[in-house]
């Protein structure tokens, strides 16, 4: 089996035709601020990837979701990041629905059957923050809630159908708001000025007294900690796989073009696959109902270090003419650096892991 074959087979099974269409578009077109990637993802059934089959979705396992994400990342890092934010939101909502008697399954049905895209406003762009810690408050107003604040960056800011976020309710209880993107009071402002990953639509979303009906304000009711752990695990796996895909795109070019020595090609590929094995191991645990956050974060940070180590090797092996002749090599290399910027950062948890590996509990603060 060749490099990335397992991942591309998983994508072809889960979302038929998507990979071929992404190849036809090409990396440069897919990475533009306005691009066809999210439309192709939606048309292929991407919004329902993690929705159980009985609710109209694909019902992909965590292992297959990680493989699909790596395959997408190798075609378009921007699309992989946007899809990660959607899938992380859906997975969190599914986990909540399994622990609740509310209307969550109705929302999940709609996501799959109407192919709705969900953006994630769970974390501000501060790399040391717990991604599910509420950054906004919701104030009760009659039978509804009013939410104000902003999220930046917020992927899928222009293509989202639903906006999901954690909010602090009365008494600092956790609530998860699911807000239609066309709800009055929601505005999108330019924010992302970088040259890479612009296709993920990561601009600022501003909420001004946005009314959220009580039925769309989901309360975990005692399952806060468990849901935060599950959400963090999903996020760690998918974001790690996204950037692993970007680095793998460089490795795939080495293989296809026979650039570098056999030793170099083999080392780059087996290093990236070793990182993938770590992500798949945690995903398999998740599929069994095991929620090991320490392993998930370790796999993500280990993947980050592998990416940082092998990407320069791959760029050097591809050679100066490849770097000069096409912007894509430099683009992919630059995109991989963003793996370090998603919360919680590796450095912010170094002390917590030092305590954990010495036999203590892993405390995210």
UniProtKB/TrEMBL annotation:
This is Acyl-CoA dehydrogenase. The chain crosses the membrane at residues 229-252. The keyword Cytoplasm does not apply. InterPro entries: Acyl-CoA_Oxase/DH_mid-dom_sf, AcylCo_DH-like_C, AcylCoA_DH/ox_N_sf, AcylCoA_DH/oxidase_NM_dom_sf. Keywords: FAD, Flavoprotein, Membrane, Oxidoreductase, Transmembrane, Transmembrane helix. One of its GO terms (molecular function) is flavin adenine dinucleotide binding. It comes from the Bacteria. It comes from Lentzea tibetensis. The keyword Transmembrane helix applies. Gene3D superfamilies: Acyl-CoA dehydrogenase/oxidase, N-terminal domain, Butyryl-CoA Dehydrogenase, subunit A, domain 2.
């Amino acid at each position: 089996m060749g490099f990335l074959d397992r991942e591309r087979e998983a994508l072809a099974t889960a979302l038929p035709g998507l990979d071929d269409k992404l190849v036809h578009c090409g990396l440069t077109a897919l990475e533009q601020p306005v691009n066809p990637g999210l439309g192709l993802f939606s048309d292929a059934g991407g919004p329902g990837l993690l929705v159980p089959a009985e609710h109209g979705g694909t019902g992909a396992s965590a292992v297959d979701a990680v493989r699909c994400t790596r395959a997408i990342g190798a075609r378009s890092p921007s699309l992989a990041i946007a899809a990660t934010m959607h899938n992380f939101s859906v997975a969190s909502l599914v986990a909540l629905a399994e622990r609740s008697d509310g209307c969550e399954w109705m929302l999940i049905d709609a996501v799959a059957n109407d192919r709705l895209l969900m953006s994630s406003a769970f974390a501000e762009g501060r790399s040391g923050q717990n991604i599910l810690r509420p950054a906004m408050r919701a104030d009760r107003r009659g039978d509804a809630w009013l939410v104000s604040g902003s999220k930046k960056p917020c992927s899928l800011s222009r293509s989202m159908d639903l906006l999901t976020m954690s909010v602090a309710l009365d008494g600092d209880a956790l609530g998860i708001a699911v807000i239609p993107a066309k709800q009055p009071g929601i505005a999108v402002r330019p924010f992302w000025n970088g040259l890479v990953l612009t296709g993920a639509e990561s601009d600022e979303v501003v909420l001004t007294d946005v009314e959220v009906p009580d039925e769309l304000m989901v309360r975990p009711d005692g399952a806060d900690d468990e849901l935060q752990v599950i959400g963090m695990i999903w996020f760690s796996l998918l974001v790690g796989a996204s950037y692993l895909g970007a680095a793998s795109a460089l490795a795939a070019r080495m293989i296809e073009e026979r650039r570098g020595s056999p030793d170099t090609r083999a080392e780059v590929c087996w290093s990236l696959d070793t990182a993938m094995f770590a992500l798949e191991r945690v995903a398999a645990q998740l599929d069994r109902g095991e929620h090991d956050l320490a392993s998930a974060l370790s796999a993500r940070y280990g993947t980050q270090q592998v990416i940082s180590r092998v990407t320069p090797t791959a760029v050097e092996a591809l050679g100066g003419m490849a770097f000069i002749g096409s912007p894509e090599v430099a683009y992919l290399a630059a995109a991989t650096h963003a793996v370090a910027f998603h919360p919680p950062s590796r450095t912010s948890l170094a002390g917590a892991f030092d305590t954990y590996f010495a036999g203590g509990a892993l405390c995210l603060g």
